[in-house]
Every structure is written in C-alpha cells, then in structure tokens.
Amino acid sequence: MVATRYKTAFKLYPYQKLDVQDAAPLRHPVVIVGGGPIGLALALDLGQKGTPALVLDDHDGAGLGSKAICFAKRTLDIANRMGAGQSMVDKGVVWNVGKVFHDDHKVFDFNLQPEAGHRNPAFINLQQPYFEKYFVDAIREAQAAGAPIEIRGQNCVTAVENHGTYSTLTVDTPDGPYQVEADYLIACDGARSPIRDMMGLSFDGRVFEDNFLIADVHMKADFPTERWFWFEPPFKGSGQSALLHKQPDDIWRIDFQLGWDIDREYELDPDRIRARVDAMLASQVGEVPHYELEWTSIYTFQCRRMEKFRHGNVIFAGDSAHQVSPFGARGANSGVQDADNLAWKLDLVLKGLADDALLDSYATEREHGADENILNSSRATDFMTPKTEVSKTFRNAVLELANKHAFARPLVNSGRLSVPCSYLGFDLFADDALEGPSSTQPGMTCPDAPHGDGFILDHLGGSFSVLALGCEAQDVAAFGITAAALNVVAPSEALSARYLGDAPQAVYLIRPDQHIVARWPDFDAVAIAAALKTAIGKT
C-alpha cells in the first residue's frame, strides 16, 4: 500500500489501475518523479513540444497548506508561455511594494517593478496548491490537444536500478507494485528526495540554528497587499523578526521567528499560536479581529545543494537538487527555472537534434543558479538572525542609517527577492556584437515590453527565435532546427529602450527558455547559424 503522508487540498490525479501494471516493464523517454510545481512544469513543457513525459506521484493531488506562496515575475512569464500564467495572476494577490520595519517604525519601502510595460507584476502571492491545480488544468488542455503527458497518482517509487543507459523503477500502488523503465529519470521529489537517498547521493550545506513558525490565518483585514517585514517587532512573542503577506481567499501568511532551542509540540499548540497572532494584530489595528487558524507549521532554515545535478541518465531538479530558506522566495521560483532550462534540452536530445552532452549544460547553468540563490539566502539569514552582539549592533546600525539615508538601504537584507538567473559568460552563449543595453546581453533573460496588442514575450520561447528590431530578418534553419523570425519594424518605446538602447536596429537569437544567445547590429544568417550551433552544444 502507498502511505498517505499528508492531506490534499485538491484531488487532481486520482489513482487508476492500468493494464501496464500487470505487464512487462514499458520503456518511457522521460519519467518524472514528483507532481509538485517543478515536475508539473517540466511535464507540461515537454508534452507541448511533443516529447512524452510520465509523472509519478505518491499522492493524488496538491498537499494542504500554503507552502510556497510568492511567485516571481520570471515564474509567471514561464507559466504564461505554457498557458497557466493568467489563471495564476487572476487568482493571486498582486504586489510590487514591500515595507521594512524596525520595532514600531518604518525604515523604508521599495517597489520591485517601478516601470510600466510588463504583462506580469513583480510578484503574486498564491498558495502552492493553486499553482499545482492550474498547471494540471493546463496539462489536461494539452492532453486534449494531443500532448503525450501522463500523470499517475498514488504511484510511489520505492526502488531505482540504474543500468547506465536507462533506469528501472519499482513503483508501489494500492494494487501492489509494478515496474517502469526510463531513458531519463528526472527527480523532482522534494528536499527529502527518496530518489537521492536510493542512489546514496549527498545533500551538503548549512542548517541555520533557528526555527520559524508559519501561521495561515483566515480573516478580513484592511492591511494593504504589500510585503511587511519587521526586525525586532514590537508585538510580544514574535522573536527577532516577523513577516506578513496577504494570500487569496482572505488568508494571511504570518511568519514568527522562534529561536533554536524550542519545544516544537509546545510551540504548535493552537492557544500559544493564537497568543502570538493576537499580539501582532492588536499592535497593528488596536484590536484583535475575528480570525481562524487555517494551517500551521514550523520550519528550520537550510541552505543545501547536491554537488552535481546530473548523474548519467538521472537528473535532479527543484528542491531535490537544492534548498534555500524561504525568505527571498527563491525555492519554487528557482525550481521552475530548472524545469524551463531542462525541458528544451531534453527535447532536442531525445529527438536526436542535439548530443546527450547538452544535458551537462543544464547541470552547469542551474548549479550556478543554485549557488547564487544559496549565497543570497545565507546572507539574508545571517542579517536577519545575528548570532553575536557585535553582529546585532552592526545590523541595527544599518537599519538606523537606512531610515535616514538611501545609500544604506541596499545593505538591509530581509530576503533578497528572486530575480531571473543570468548565464553571462557561459559556454552556450555567443559573443556580443551589439553595443546595446546591458540588460539584454547574451546570457540574460528577455525582458518583457509592449508589442502590438500584447507583449513581446507572448511571441518568444518554446523554440528558438530570431528577433529583429528596426529591420527585417528571415527564418534560419541549421542542424535540423529552425529559428523562426519575428520582425518588429517599428518597436514600441519600451521595447526600444530595453533591446536597442542607442542602437538604431538589432537582431537577437533567443533560446526556447527566453535566454538571449547572441545579438548583432543587423541580420547575418551565417552568424546566426553559428550561434545556434553554439547554443545546442555542437561547438
């Protein structure tokens, strides 16, 4: 039998016995273990490209509780490309502004997206179960259109045998075990990854000596839809820091810092949690409004990653490969970028359009992304939770300076919020032949901008593209791949500012994951073909 580890918020893929469970093992091009945000995003992306993907999950839907709630613009742009983004934005609580407090006074506020001309906001708050539901909805639509995606609920992988060129998985179900074979096994099975443990692989890093209480509170309140963070809050029992976020359905997420040496059972007592919440609400509105505790949990900060994300035909993505503290919203957002990076490479390799070695670049690029996130997460945690009086004195001095002087505000670290990962200088990117804006150098992600009746990112991604601004280009075909041309003869003001700068015209080669491969001052089919060769690892 398959053990039930948690309750589900939505039953998305109920168990069904299949004939294959009583037959010899079938070989699948891609088997994804884990039906969370990363596994679902990867399956949808592969399926929309025509590459079969089988998802195995040990439950039948999204787990109860908010878990990941802050989804960044880059994640929304990726979701929009795959048909799930608008549902997320429509349901989510949109926010761009954050405020930082020290004790009972505001230190400063910030706007993460002050410029106009983007389809998506800087962030939305949306409970993880909704993310998973909307991606499953998009998968069902893709399946109806013929996409070769399959999700099997209550299919728990209990053993993995790697044969070098493929893997055999033993899968337990309510009707007993059966076996599945995979050309490529993708482990998206979370921070406690059973696949990682079965393979005897390490997960090294740092565990921070602190605990944080999450309380999802259902209430009507007039707080603005902003991120509020307190250092040394004025309300009783909050510890060294606290965080307040609004979620959909009148749910508010509150985080309290508890310290290291705690009695978890005692701290999770509803009466004790209510005392903390009461103190917080009373300090902000003068009274305690009616509320209900929806979900509570205690977590400990951990910043870890695997030494290598690729082990032959077994590849790790999301929390199974790397883990960071939740402050900064770098966990799920980074994992979605993993899926975005991996899908097009797997697709080309399985279609014979690229060598297997292209998948090594997934590991190289996303290990870099993980290191970047771990560095930012570790710095934020050290600033938020100083361990010595000297560190605390420094932290508080920075907060005092930031209250009066703008130059000190970048030093305040309440969690450096998730941004797109840059691959400047990495192997799959060509030389920069354009004196254009620094934000659109090779290795960067494409910024959004108005175009026609919509936005430029609506037309980029999913496959290679040639973007011509102020001039005309043609499709470029090389190595069995066609990079389709998008000609924008009269770009919008925002599009010109973000892609041209002072240049009168430009041509860009863009990867399926919307990262810029190369750029030139004019169209050159030979140069584009050479850059395409570089981008698929055929140098």
Architecture blueprint of SSEs:
Layout: E1 8-11, E2 26-33, H1 37-48, E3 53-56, E4 61-63, E5 70-72, H2 73-81, H3 85-91, E6 93-95, E7 97-102, E8 105-111, E9 123-125, H4 128-144, E10 149-152, E11 156-162, E12 167-172, E13 178-187, H5 194-198, E14 204-219, E15 227-231, E16 241-247, E17 251-259, H6 264-267, H7 270-285, E18 291-305, E19 310-311, E20 314-316, E21 322-323, H8 331-350, H9 358-384, H10 389-404, E22 450-451, E23 454-455, E24 465-469, E25 476-478, E26 481-488, H11 493-499, E27 506-510, E28 516-520, H12 525-535
Parallel strand pairs: 2-3, 2-13, 3-10, 7-15, 13-20, 24-26
Antiparallel strand pairs: 1-4, 5-9, 6-9, 7-8, 11-12, 12-13, 14-17, 14-18, 15-16, 16-17, 18-21, 19-20, 22-23, 24-27, 25-26, 27-28
Helix pairs in contact: 1-4, 1-8, 2-3, 8-9
